[in-house]
Amino acid sequence: MKVRNLCVVGALAAAVLSFSAPATRADDMSSSSSIDYKTLINPKWDYTDLQHAKAYGLTDSQTATVAKIAWKTGWSFTDVLAMVQRGESFGFIAQKANLRLSDVMDSSDVWDKIAAYKMAYEHTGKKAMMDSSSSM
Known about the structure:
Layout: H1 2-20, H2 22-33, H3 47-56, H4 60-73, H5 77-85, H6 90-96, H7 101-105, H8 108-122, H9 126-134
Helix pairs in contact: 4-5, 4-8
């Protein structure tokens, strides 16, 4: 009788271990270890700014250009976005800020920073809190 109970317990333990999916947890840990959470400290923009730009209809490239202008000038992302919404071109804004247009239009470095920021933000739980509070 005791031997049979041990076999049942062993089978249950094996079933529980197979459902825990250790490979999945290892995958999650390896992907989360590549996230740079330092990008969330004192960013030049926040998730709401990026969503406003998207809602206005800017492409990812245009959003990165707005972020680059804000970063190079010290202006807020919201102020630069407001200039774009008023119809000011990136060339005009660059001239107004004494920036070379070629520096402003090559926004691949900022595009990477935005992608890293979004990745870190979406994995902190702040996004879930924001989504749940906006649905109330």
